[in-house]
Every structure is written in C-alpha cells, then in structure tokens.
Design brief:
D-Maltodextrin-Binding Protein, domain 2; 3 domains; about 40% helix; alpha/beta; 11 strands; elongated; two-stranded antiparallel ribbon; about 300 residues; about 20% strand
Length: about 300
C-alpha cells in the first residue's frame, strides 16, 4: 500500500468530502480521487461509497480507516519523540477557541506558559465554528462553551462563564430603565434576531416577561454589542469577562443587577489519542491551573 494513498483515504474518511480532503492535502480533487482508486485497486476492495453527494465508507473502508487512525497518530507521536534527538526541537500545538474569549482573555494569559515551555510553539485558531477543525485535526484542542459530542473526544472542565446585561448610565437614565417592562421601547442588542443569544437571560426571568424584549437590533459580534451599548443605542447581553474594565470604570452598568443569568461552562475538548502527547498534556495542565477569576469566570 502506498502511504500517500493511505493518507488521502484517511483524510477523506474524516471529512467525507473530496473537495475538503483536497484542500487539506493541498492537492486537486482529481488527485484525491485518483489516490482512492489506486488504493482500492491495490487492495481489490471497495473502500468508499457514494449515495448522491454523500460520501461514506464500505465495511472494508471502515476497517482500514480504524487502522489508519492508529497508524497516523503513531506517526505523529513518534515524530515528536524523534525531535528529542534534535539540538533545538520545536513541538507545535494548535489551540482553538471562541473569537472573543481568545482575543480578549486567552492571549493575555498564555505568556507564562510560553516562557515556561520554550520548546513548544503555539499557534491559535479563533472561530465561532470549532467542531470541524477539531474533528479534522486542524487543531490539537479547543476551548469552547458549546458541547462537542463525539466518541473520540475528551471533555475537561475549565471554568464557569457568567453573563451580564449592559447599558450606558446615560441610556438607563434617559429611558428610565428600572424594570423589565421598560425594555419594551428600547433596542435589544443581540447577535441574532430570535434572541437565542439572550437565552441565558430569558431562562432566568418569568416567561410572560419575554415579550418586553421585542425591538431587536442585530449586531453579529460581541465587541459590536459592547460598543453599541457604550454608544447609547440599546441594551446588550455579553459574557462578563468581556466588559470587566468598562463596568469598573462605569462606562457601562448592569441595569438589572438583581437578575442572575444562567451561566455556561467552558471546557477543553481534545481527541483522546492526542491526550497522550506530552506537549498537549503540558498545555492542558497549565490551562487548568489558571484561576477561573483570571479567565473572567
């Protein structure tokens, strides 16, 4: 079996798309298709099935894919081990996280890890869509408050994320915001129109009061919501860690300090096999030692 053909098959089996596999392998789609055909010919077995646009694996393909998963992980593992024989080995780790958390908090607390582990090179992927990069091995691990259900993925609890409603003091005074009823005539700043973004707030108040949040202004970025609230165009709802400075300086205030929105939980998600790699374990141990308060939790 040709190792390049095996790798093309393995990547295709992971992403279930010839186009995506070609992108990850930096080759053409026809090159991936050719590699699969050559591999099937050499094994005299059908490996890949296709129903319309859906790509799947045959029983023989599933058996081979399981072995490939072990083989390519072992190659990654031994590659790191062999770096120990180099004068100046560099162990690369790619860490993914939500955009706002990564840019606002994570980068501020990673310097100590880099100074303590000079042989580890960290790269970052900040995105609101982290499941696919994790499954496709484009990142070694991610920090996320969303659930990632997959039999190969391990979840490690990290910290509790709290939320807060925000508005400028002038806006609250101008509109006389004292109760939930006072929200009926003001802009509700939200990432989405159906207020899924405000879910943790809504489940913390009586359902009959949900109707007061009806004038929704969509702003599809957390920092935009914060700036909009500071500019006095509405009431926002954001993770508390994103506005600690603004709250301390009273550029923003919580109009409803008596309401305690439900919290989310940030976790580290990593494939179980990647947990064995020392470079990944070192980063996980560091992240778990950081105090939740430093992460804004």
């Amino acid at each position: 079996m040709n190792l390049n053909h095996l790798k093309a098959f393995y990547i295709l089996g992971r992403v279930k798309s010839y186009t995506r596999a070609a992108e990850l392998l930096f080759v053409t789609q026809s090159a991936v298709s050719h590699a699969i055909k050559k591999l099937e010919q050499s094994l005299d077995a059908e490996l890949v099935t296709r129903e319309g646009k859906r790509i799947g694996l045959s029983p023989a393909g599933k058996t081979l894919f399981k072995s490939c998963d072990s083989i390519f992980h072992e190659i990654e593992e031994v590659t790191d081990e062999l770096k120990g024989f180099q004068d100046k080995p560099v162990y690369r780790v790619v860490l993914g996280s939500q955009v706002e958390f990564g840019t606002t908090i994570l980068l501020k607390h990673i310097r100590a890890f880099l100074e303590a582990n000079p042989l580890i090179h960290l790269d970052f992927l900040f995105s609101h869509h982290l499941n696919r990069p994790l499954i496709e091995d484009r990142v070694d691990m991610i920090i996320d408050c969303k659930a990632h259900h997959h039999p190969d993925i391990e979840k490690i609890p990290l910290f509790r994320e709290t939320y807060v409603t925000i508005a400028s003091p002038e806006f609250v005074e101008q509109h006389g915001i004292r109760s939930l009823e006072d929200l009926s005539g003001v802009n509700i700043l939200s990432i989405d129109k159906d207020l899924t973004w405000w879910h943790n707030f809504l489940i913390s108040i009586p359902e009959k009061q949900h109707t007061h949040l009806k004038k929704v202004m969509q702003i599809n970025h957390v920092r935009g919501i914060i700036n909009g609230a500071m500019a006095g165009i509405g009431v926002g709802f954001v993770p508390k860690y994103t506005v600690l400075h603004e709250l301390e300086q009273r550029q923003l205030i919580d109009p409803f300090p008596g309401i305690k929105p439900a919290a989310d939980h940030f976790n580290i998600f990593i494939k179980k096999k990647k947990m064995k790699l020392p470079k990944n374990r070192q980063l996980i141990e560091y992240l778990c030692r950081v105090k939740p308060s430093e992460f804004g939790g």
